[in-house]
């Protein structure tokens, strides 16, 4: 069953036209199940009905014409119930409705299953049989499995269809909206630019173009370069590979021959396809032919053809990329945004970021926020290449991307973007005012640094120091661990920005979604694995070098604080403190000789693993301060991967359980007289700031871009009003209710523009 399923899905995927793909699907399904009829209906939510899109067995003339209301007939019933129906005689069912156009009089047995993607019914697939019978359990399981597999393909195909990229002449004609996860707030209107395209044919969108001569030249040059590459590889491997394996290179060279692949690709180019599209179509056809062969040796050659195709593609993209320049008002698009990728682009050249992977509190989103760029994450519905060169509106509040916006929509968003600018200017006016609530309660605003060096290394009167310096980014940008000397320079420059302010440096917190290129960690569950303090305690040499570097950087100064990430148990703290003392002892010995003064920094732990909530007194007796990592605390308390867009709806720091945990921590810390800061993203959110003020938090650490927003919020409310709001939301049952209450409060305070587009 699995192979049949795979074969069908693969074959259908090869078909460019969406309607043709559905027709093929209906045909293959009918053949695979020996049913007399197979039909596919797709939902139209605007019209609230299902459209017959493909059939093998009903009247073909009904395709595209027959519509069935969401609450009508058996198709409607399957959609409403969101489960399969399997009946011996459809006509005897009370919900059966006769549609004369489909001509189904002869059929009796009926089985249908919904096609569902992310809880949404996209359509229904049905099988029908002339005889009266019950479809077997295996047949039902097969259909359900296929429907689940085909759902994502339908989403992709619909997005492709909506963007209509198969026809270049039609591009930019229709507006379409794609949905992702809101990454960072703001509106960006610009042009999509795909970074570091992953050069596989599978990721390429089909395109028609009107310049066959240029495309042919592009293809031929790429083949010539690939030939050299293969020849070179072949020469180098001559002595190391056995002869039969080495023969693969001969096959590559043969395939590169003008009479082989080349001929067919050029035929496609002549038919109006781009060189990349032609190559994609021909290679995918070959791959499929090989995969369908009975001989296992030949089947395996499919991989070689694919590999060769990707090599040629790599050459074509290279030559295209070398000619490509960043468009004006670039919206950077990538499979996954990384710190090193962002470093490649001058910050002033970007106006927005779209990442296909990741979710609202992935480090990529946090990085975008730190740079003050609107972003959308987890845009899984289309391949990245589809957004290249497209005119886009990025709405970082809703997580929507509008492709080829119509003039009226564009004007509306332009207006919102202008209002955002006005708001920004208003915020600048708060710069020199103190951060106090209406009843004069002071809240210290610190900044989270490390992600956007340019911004954070500058002196400013707005902040009260650095509440979190993420040290891992400089580690991620290199090809090896930075040396002690390199680290000293880096940390010194941070401490010297303003020596009167405290700088809280966090020890290396890699793992999870922050891998080091030179220390690959392959784990099933990286967020539950070798991360933060767990990794550095296993490598005391890395930890000691880092702490020594921090201490040496602080010689003669007294503004360093050190913080430990991902603490789960008290013994991790004991072990880390032992190493810090050792480093302190070593550095003070050395500094005595040079006459410089070394002060012992305050040491704190991050509260981000739920277990530590129940060990606060034990931790408090060991360290000087606490800092709450609400990003991870939310992830671990709710058991929701912060990096996974599939569960992004479940990740919410306003979940009542998270809020209660935060209240519990501040109450405990206050009782124990232990200073506590909150440095997760919610500290920089207007709604979060309201709640945290109500809970009693007086130290909030956030990215610099949010600082004035939070100051505005705090200055607009009194503590007792914030406490009353907190009491109200703590009695709520769901994060949605909390969010609504917060947004309403912000609107009534005149601060609505901070959480939605516009003033
Ligand atoms: C947190 O977890 O809230 C935090 C501040 O650290 P990071 O986002 O770097 O994991
Ligand atoms: Mg964390």
**Averaged pLDDT, please?**
88
CATH architecture group name of the largest domain: Orthogonal Bundle
* Oligomer category: single chain
Low-pLDDT segments? 164-172
Helicity range: 40-55%
- Total number of domains: 4
**Broad CATH class of the largest domain:** Mainly Alpha
Determine the strand fraction and express it as a percent band. Answer: 15-25%
* Strand ordering within the main sheet: 7-14-13-9-10-11-12-8
Number of helices: 25
How would you characterize the overall build of this protein?
- This protein has 759 residues and is of the alpha/beta class.
- The protein folds into four domains: 2-162, GAF domain (Beta-Lactamase); 165-404, Enzyme I, Chain A, domain 2 (Orthogonal Bundle), CATH 1.10.274.10; 437-454 and 608-759, Alpha-Beta Barrel (TIM Barrel), CATH 3.20.20.60; 471-607, TIM Barrel.
- It is 45% helix and 15% strand.
- It contains 25 helices and 22 strands.
- The chain has an eight-stranded mixed β-sheet with strand order 7-14-13-9-10-11-12-8, with helices on both faces. The chain has an eight-stranded parallel β-sheet with strand order 21-20-19-18-17-16-15-22, covered by helices on one side.
- Helix 5 runs antiparallel to helix 6, helix 15 crosses helix 17 (540-553) and helix 22 crosses helix 25.
- It is globular and about 90 Å long.
- Mean pLDDT is 88; it is low at 164-172.
- The site of magnesium ion has 5 residues, from helix 20.
């Amino acid at each position: 069953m699995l192979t049949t399923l795979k074969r069908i899905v693969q074959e259908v995927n090869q078909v460019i036209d969406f309607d043709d793909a559905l027709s093929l699907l209906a045909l293959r399904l009918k053949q695979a199940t020996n049913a007399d009829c197979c039909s596919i209906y797709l939902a139209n939510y605007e019209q609230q009905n299902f459209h017959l899109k493909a059939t093998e067995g009903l009247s073909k003339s009904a395709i595209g014409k027959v519509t069935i209301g969401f609450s009508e007939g058996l198709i409607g019933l399957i959609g409403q119930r969101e489960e399969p129906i399997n009946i011996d005689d459809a006509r005897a069912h009370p919900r059966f409705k006769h549609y004369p156009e489909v001509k189904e009089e002869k059929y009796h047995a009926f089985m249908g299953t919904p096609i569902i993607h992310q809880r949404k019914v996209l359509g229904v697939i049905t099988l029908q049989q002339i005889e009266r019978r019950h479809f077997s359990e295996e047949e039902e399981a097969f259909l359900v499995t296929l429907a689940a597999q085909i759902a994502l393909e339908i989403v992709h195909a619909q997005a492709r269809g909506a963007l209509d990229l198969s026809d270049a002449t039609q591009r930019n004609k229709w507006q379409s909206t794609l949905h992702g996860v809101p990454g960072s707030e703001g509106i960006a209107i610009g042009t999509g630019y795909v970074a570091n395209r992953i050069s596989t044919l599978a990721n390429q969108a089909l395109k028609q173009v009107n310049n066959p001569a240029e495309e042919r030249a592009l293809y031929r040059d790429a083949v010539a370069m690939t030939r050299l590459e293969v020849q070179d590889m072949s020469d180098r491997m001559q002595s190391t590979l056995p002869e039969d394996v080495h023969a693969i290179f001969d096959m590559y060279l043969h395939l590169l021959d003008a009479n082989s692949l080349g001929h067919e690709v050029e035929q496609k180019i002549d038919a109006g396809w781009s060189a990349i599209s032609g190559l994609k179509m021909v290679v995918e056809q070959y791959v499929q032919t090989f995969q369908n062969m009975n001989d296992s040796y030949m089947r395996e050659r499919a991989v070689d053809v694919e590999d060769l195709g990707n090599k040629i593609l790599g050459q074509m993209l290279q030559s295209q990329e070398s000619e490509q320049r960043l468009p004006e008002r670039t919206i950077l698009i990538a499979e996954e945004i990384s710190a090193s990728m962002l470093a490649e682009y001058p910050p002033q050249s970007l106006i927005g970021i779209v990442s296909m992977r990741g979710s609202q509190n992935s480090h990529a989103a946090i990085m975008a926020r730190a740079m003050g760029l609107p972003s959308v994450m987890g845009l899984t519905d289309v391949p990245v290449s589809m957004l290249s060169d497209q005119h886009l509106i990025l709405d970082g509040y809703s997580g929507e991307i509008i492709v080829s916006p119509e003039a009226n929509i564009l004007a509306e968003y332009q207006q919102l973007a202008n209002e955002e600018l006005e708001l920004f200017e208003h915020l600048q006016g708060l710069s020199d005012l103190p951060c106090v609530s209406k009843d004069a309660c002071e809240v210290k605003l610190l900044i989270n640094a490390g992600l956007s060096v340019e911004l954070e290394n500058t002196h400013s009167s707005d902040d009260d120091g650095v509440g979190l310096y993420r040290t891992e980014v400089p580690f991620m940008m290199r090809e090896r661990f930075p040396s002690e000397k390199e680290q000293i320079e880096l940390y010194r420059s941070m401490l010297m920005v303003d020596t009167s302010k405290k700088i809280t440096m966090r020890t290396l917190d890699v793992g999870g979604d922050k891998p080091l290129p030179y220390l690959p960690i392959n784990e099933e569950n990286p967020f539950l694995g070798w991360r933060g303090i767990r990794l550095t305690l296993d490598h005391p040499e890395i930890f000691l070098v880092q702490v020594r570097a921090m201490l040496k950087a602080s010689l003669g100064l007294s503004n360093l604080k050190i913080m430990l990430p991902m603490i789960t148990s008290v013994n991790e703290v004991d072990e880390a403190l032992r190493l810090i003392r050792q480093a302190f002892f070593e550095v003070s010995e050395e500094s005595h000789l040079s006459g410089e003064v070394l002060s012992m920094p305050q040491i704190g732990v991050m509260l981000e693993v739920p277990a530590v909530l129940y060990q606060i007194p034990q931790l408090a007796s060991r360290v000087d301060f606490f800092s709450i990592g609400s990003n991870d605390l939310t992830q671990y308390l709710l058991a929701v991967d912060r990096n996974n867009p599939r569960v992004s709806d479940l990740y919410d720091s306003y979940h009542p359980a998270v809020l209660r945990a935060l209240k519990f921590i501040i109450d405990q810390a206050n009782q124990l007289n232990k200073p506590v800061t909150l440095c997760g993203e919610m500290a920089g959110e207007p709604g979060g700031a309201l709640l945290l003020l109500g809970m009693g938090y007086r130290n909030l650490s956030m990215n610099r871009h949010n600082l004035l927003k939070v100051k505005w919020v705090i200055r607009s409310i009194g503590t007792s009003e914030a406490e009353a709001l907190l009491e109200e939301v703590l009695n709520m049952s769901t994060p949605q209710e909390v969010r609504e209450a917060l947004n309403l409060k912000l609107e009534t305070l005149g601060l609505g523009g901070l959480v939605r587009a516009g003033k």
